[in-house]
Amino acid sequence: MSNSPIDVVLIGGGIMSATLGALIQRVQPDWTIRLYENLGEVAQESSNPWNNAGTGHAALCELNYMPEAADGSVDPAKAISINEQFQLSRQFWASLVTAGDLPEPNTFINSTPHMTFVRGRDNVRYLRKRYEALKDQPLFAGMEYSEDPAVIGEWTPLLTKKRNAKQRIAATRAASGTDVDFGALTRALVDDLSRRGADIALNHKVRSIKRTKDGLWRLKVLHMVGHTPHEVKARFVFVGAGGGALHLLQKAGIPEIKGFGGFPISGQFLRTSDPKIVAQHQAKVYGKAAVGAPPMSVPHLDTRVVDGEASLLFGPYAGFSPKFLKTGTWWDLPGSVRPSNLIPMLAVAKDNFDLIKYLVGELLANRAKKMKALQEFMPTAKSEDWELITAGQRVQVMKKDAKKGGVLQFGTEVIASADGSIAGLLGASPGASTAVPIMLDVLKRCFPEQYNGWVPTLTALIPTMGSTLNDRPKDAQKVMASTAETLHLTQ
């Protein structure tokens, strides 16, 4: 064991650890940082571009942020909140581009209109109400709405070509949407961490985390290549290991993790790189989820730009696997069960029968059924043009609930010890898009004594941190235009 404790240990080489490391290096450049990644490269799990849809989640097209209430109303508050968070991420990335700490923006972010597309009278009525609730919000300025197949076909021909003319359809379009390659972004951030002195330890698996008598954390680490173990001490530990975070936080023994469980959901996408097909679709188009489907399984037909090449992605087709990571094991789910989370997990199973039924149906779906789902979006789709790829694992949060015993929570949750010496992130979408505000929350919660002194540096990097834009139309327009210019995006 090294005699000198590491100031900050980051576990997991994804967008969360990379973002937190980048922030800490700028507010406290004298601290030592080490990042441990189990695999031979960073960004190989949820941050890998083919393991997620790359949507810059700004709630421009995702209907699950604005569900229809029992009385038929739609509330834009959640959508506005998600958009506000994404603006903070964009500002941080723009600051790093300006400073030369990130490469050319088009290597990790590109303009891609965000659309919502629905079919049927009731869905059209709902989408119209959603549009009316958002169109005058400053962060959603410029959103368009149409029920005219000709107009929708101009936006993206694949949605209307050879569609039944009698079918009622509607769509919204926001030209300010983006496609983000979170894999490329993560690699660029980690490269910058390394240039600034952080130690990047690939092929290193953290086996356990234990508190020591002197208040530090002892980490047992295995080098996966030579299978040689070693131990290190750390003053602060962040567990950004995606689906692996739950197990490590449980091993750390902090009381704050008691009662939390994980519900793993696997996924697949159909993908095509045929230039003739790709050229006809320049958008991320989200629809409505099937009954019982989790929000992360909302069907969407997306333009993706990965390593400079454009492709189309459709899905996800959700399924069930007990693995918490794509490279995990079949023991991940049963190994996460503890006396403290057994009741919440059983309560979730009891109250989410529709979800379980949906996942089983998706798991049993054959190629023809998958193609039929695509053809509901794109009537001209042919099976031979599309390949099936496996997406990343997502682990939804299960937690205690006073009334129900346990609930399944969609989104992300930061778990931190009372003294702030260890923190981790559970959950999934829209995590990557909102990595910056989530990691700002980690800084504020875990370093309360230092945080106020860091605010000037953080504000210089993220000008609207601590405030909101949607209630200041002129500032919203100015900030979004500025970051769009720096990141080479169209508004």
Automatic annotation (TrEMBL):
<protein>
    <recommendedName>
        <fullName>Probable malate:quinone oxidoreductase</fullName>
        <ecNumber>1.1.5.4</ecNumber>
    </recommendedName>
</protein>
<dbReference type="GO" id="GO:0047545">
    <property type="term" value="F:(S)-2-hydroxyglutarate dehydrogenase activity"/>
</dbReference>
<dbReference type="GO" id="GO:0008924">
    <property type="term" value="F:L-malate dehydrogenase (quinone) activity"/>
</dbReference>
<comment type="similarity">
    <text>Belongs to the MQO family.</text>
</comment>
<keyword id="KW-0560">Oxidoreductase</keyword>
<dbReference type="Pfam" id="PF06039">
    <property type="entry name" value="Mqo"/>
</dbReference>
<dbReference type="GO" id="GO:0006099">
    <property type="term" value="P:tricarboxylic acid cycle"/>
</dbReference>
<keyword id="KW-0274">FAD</keyword>
<dbReference type="InterPro" id="IPR036188">
    <property type="entry name" value="FAD/NAD-bd_sf"/>
</dbReference>
<keyword id="KW-0816">Tricarboxylic acid cycle</keyword>
<dbReference type="InterPro" id="IPR006231">
    <property type="entry name" value="MQO"/>
</dbReference>
<keyword id="KW-0285">Flavoprotein</keyword>
<comment type="pathway">
    <text>Carbohydrate metabolism; tricarboxylic acid cycle; oxaloacetate from (S)-malate (quinone route): step 1/1.</text>
</comment>
